[in-house]
């Protein structure tokens, strides 16, 4: 038995006891006769809200996964934008687009969706003190020529604008969502088939079916969400029947689960070592090279993931099918320096159960190079502020490369530019890389854009900005009675109006 798995087994009894205690926190989930519909769906989510369920944060993906909010478009399985609150769109010229807004839609507070409401919602996102990452570096002029048309003029050509507007951070909300103090609330202000009726801090969320939904009424009476950041607890909740769907189940629990309940999905998500490129030990390229030289992704995949992941060849794994064939030379030419006695702090978070185990092996590997490693491991909501402000020398993080638009350029702009607004763990500001990302953003969807993306990947890896460790596969747990849950590699959909559970 390897060191990491032995560690997990030793703590397993205590964690399982805590997990079983948590099952009492889940709602009963029986059929709700008063709502005239099927059983409520109980979710065990992996990551607690870090920004009060603000749609302008990473919390927006949860709002979308619960079908509480909707955007103008949505991505299909191939990552191409499809109609949602916009029924169609057309490009008038290089910078001008028009979107036809769906008629007969009401917000969950009873107000009407029309072109002016869409313009108001998108303008609020543009004017936000902290813009949604999908709008980083993007300027738009919005207008409503009539009640069912939204015209958008971009400052520069934006070939992926419809895909950009599919982002959950650009959910269209009613006017009541936008408060005088600048905060935004999706509680009862979306357009989806489920309406948020209660938020229990970072512990629970309750959603009821919205019977005024413009599409087919939800088959389930509602959704009861519990945030269970410990992976063992999520698995126990599914096994015990306390949860119907459990997100991001850890590999350590697979042997205890009925294989029929486990559903594996290749993800455009990579676990990486993010060096702090701006200050500290790893501002020195030779120290980044020294660390990179001893890191062994294959050992991590074997020992931590037990083969349920892929040793990373780059930032873009098997879920991005064109990446492998277009990948050029990513080898670093930087000579490793002498790391002996260099003290560093390595941070990661507990919300993704494998990351603390990754940290154990990464520490061992770095110590072989002479680094003196101190770990700082917390829940993401407690760690993120420090991590995003450069408090650590290394952060081990898990990041989807398709979160913003389904197209990797948005991810690259958000995370690796001087004005990055997203997961800026690398603390990078390199004008040459900025220009390469800007050039990629001007290309139309297709081979030229793909080649430009892979050129940026090569620059990042050649300079040891980041070391990809694992291209991930998500494992979603679903009880035997669940039907119609979405297994979405883009992590935008989970429960829909079609999802049911039979008990």
From TrEMBL:
What CDD domains does the record point to? Answer: PBP2_NikA_DppA_OppA_like_3 (cd08490)
Q: Which UniProt keywords apply?
A: Signal
Q: Which residues form a coiled coil?
A: none
- Give the residue range of the signal peptide: 1-27
Solute-binding protein family domain boundaries? 81-421
Question: Which named protein is this?
Answer: ABC transporter substrate-binding protein
């Amino acid at each position: 038995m390897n060191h990491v798995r032995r560690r997990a087994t030793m703590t397993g009894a205590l964690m399982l006891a805590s997990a079983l205690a948590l099952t009492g926190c889940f709602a009963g989930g029986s059929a709700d006769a008063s709502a005239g519909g099927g059983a409520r769906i109980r979710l065990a989510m992996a990551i607690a809200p870090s920004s009060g369920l603000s749609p302008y944060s990473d919390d927006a993906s949860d709002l979308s996964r619960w079908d509480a909010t909707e955007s103008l478009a949505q991505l299909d399985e191939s990552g191409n934008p499809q109609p949602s609150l916009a029924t169609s769109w057309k490009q008038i010229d290089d910078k001008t687009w028009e979107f036809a807004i769906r008629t007969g839609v009401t917000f969950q507070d009873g107000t009407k969706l029309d072109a002016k409401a869409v313009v108001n919602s998108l303008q609020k996102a543009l004017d936000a003190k902290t813009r949604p990452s999908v709008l980083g570096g993007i300027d738009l002029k919005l207008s409503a020529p009539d009640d069912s048309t939204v015209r958008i003029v971009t400052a520069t050509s934006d070939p992926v604008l419809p895909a950009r507007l599919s982002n959950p951070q650009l959910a269209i909300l009613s006017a009541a969502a936008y408060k005088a103090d600048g905060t935004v609330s999706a509680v009862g202000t979306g357009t989806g088939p489920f309406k948020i009726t209660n938020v229990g801090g970072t512990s629970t969320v309750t959603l009821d079916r919205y019977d005024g939904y413009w599409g087919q009424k939800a088959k389930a009476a509602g959704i009861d969400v519990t945030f269970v950041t410990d992976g063992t607890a999520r698995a126990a909740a599914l096994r015990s029947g306390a949860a119907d769907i459990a997100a991001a189940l850890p590999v350590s629990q697979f042997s205890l689960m009925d294989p029929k309940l486990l559903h594996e999905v290749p993800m455009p998500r990579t676990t990486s070592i993010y060096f702090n490129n701006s200050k500290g030990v790893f501002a020195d390229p030779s120290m980044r090279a020294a660390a990179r030289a001893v890191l062994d992704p294959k050992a991590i995949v074997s020992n931590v993931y037990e083969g349920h992941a892929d040793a990373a060849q780059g930032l873009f794994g098997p879920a991005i099918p064109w990446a492998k064939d277009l990948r050029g030379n990513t080898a670093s030419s930087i000579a490793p320096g002498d790391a002996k006695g260099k003290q560093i702090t390595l941070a990661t978070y507990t919300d993704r159960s494998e990351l603390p185990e990754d940290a154990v092996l990464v520490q061992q590997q770095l110590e072989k190079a002479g680094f003196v490693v101190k770990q700082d491991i917390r829940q993401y909501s407690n760690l993120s502020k420090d991590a995003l402000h450069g408090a650590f020398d290394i952060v081990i993080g898990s990041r989807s490369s398709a979160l913003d638009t389904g197209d990797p350029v948005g991810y690259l702009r958000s995370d690796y530019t001087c004005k990055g607004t997203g997961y800026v763990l690398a603390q990078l500001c390199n004008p040459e890389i900025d220009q390469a990302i800007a050039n990629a953003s001007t290309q139309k969807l297709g081979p030229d854009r793909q080649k430009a993306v892979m050129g940026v990947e090569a620059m990042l890896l050649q300079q040891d900005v980041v070391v990809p460790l694992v291209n991930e596969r998500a494992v979603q747990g679903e009880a035997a009675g669940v039907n119609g849950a979405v297994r979405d590699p883009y992590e935008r959909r989970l429960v829909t109006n079609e999802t049911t559970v039979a008990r």
